[in-house]
Amino acid sequence: MESHIDDAEKYLGMPVVFTEFGVSVKDQGYNSTFRDNLYSTVYKTLLNSTKRGGSGAGSLMWQLFPEGTDYMDDGYAIVLSKSPSASNMISLHSTRIAIFNSLCSWKCKWGCKKKTALDTILYHDEL
After folding, report:
1. DSSP symbol at 121
2. Would you call 54 exposed, middle or buried from its count of C-beta atoms within 10 A (0-12, 13-18, 19+)?
3. Using an 8 Å Cβ cutoff, are 36 and 85 in contact?
4. Which helix H or strand E contains 18, and what residues bound it?
5. From which domain of life does this come (predicted)?
6. For position 122, what pLDDT does the model report?
7. How do residues 85-122 score in pLDDT, each as one tens digit?
8. CB-based contacts of 30, cutoff 8 Å, min separation 6
9. What is the pLDDT of residue 39?
10. In 3D, which of 5, 32, 33, 35 has the Cα closest to residue 21?
11. Is the dihedral of CA 44, 45, 51, 56 positive or negative?
12. How high is the pLDDT of residue 98?
C-alpha cells in the first residue's frame, strides 16, 4: 500500500483508492483476528497518508452486507450486526477521516486543507 501511495504522489500526481480488499471465511485457517488486523493495517496506512496530505484517498472493502443477505455471501461479506469488531473499526476510521478533513487549515496538493486535529480521535493507537 505504501509503495502505491508513494508512486501516486511522486509519479502520477494523483490520489489512490484501495478497493475490494478483505479476507474470506472460506480460507483455510481463517479467523476474525486476522481479518481485523488486515482492516486495521489498511485504515492506519490511509489515515497516516491523510494526516500528511498524501495520496491515500480512501478504501472500499469487499463486501459490506445488510442483515438478511447471507445467501449472497461469497465468504468475504461483513454483516455489521454479526461482526462488532469490524463494525467498530469501520465506524472509528470513518469518524477519524471525517473529523480530520473537517478541521483543515492548510492547503495540500489535493485541494483539501489539513490541520492538527483532536489527538484523542485521530492519533489513538487502537484502530
Report:
1. H
2. buried
3. yes
4. strand 16-21
5. Eukaryota
6. 54
7. 999 999 999 888 888 777 665 545 555 544 444 544 55
8. 23, 24
9. 93
10. 35
11. negative
12. 81
N- to C-terminal Cα separation, the chain = 17
| Cell 493495517 sits on residue | 41
User: Taking the complete model, does pTM exceed 0.90, yes or no?
Assistant: no
Question: What is the pLDDT, as a whole number, of residue 96?
Answer: 86
Calculate the alpha carbon distances from 117 to 12, 21, 32, 40, 50 in Å: 28, 28, 31, 20, 12
Q: Is 57 helix (H, G, I), strand (E, B) or coil?
A: strand
Q: Could you tell me which residues come within 8 angstroms of residue 43 by beta carbon, excluding any fewer than 6 positions away?
A: 59, 89, 93, 127
What gap in Å lies between CA 84 and CA 61, rounded to an integer? 16
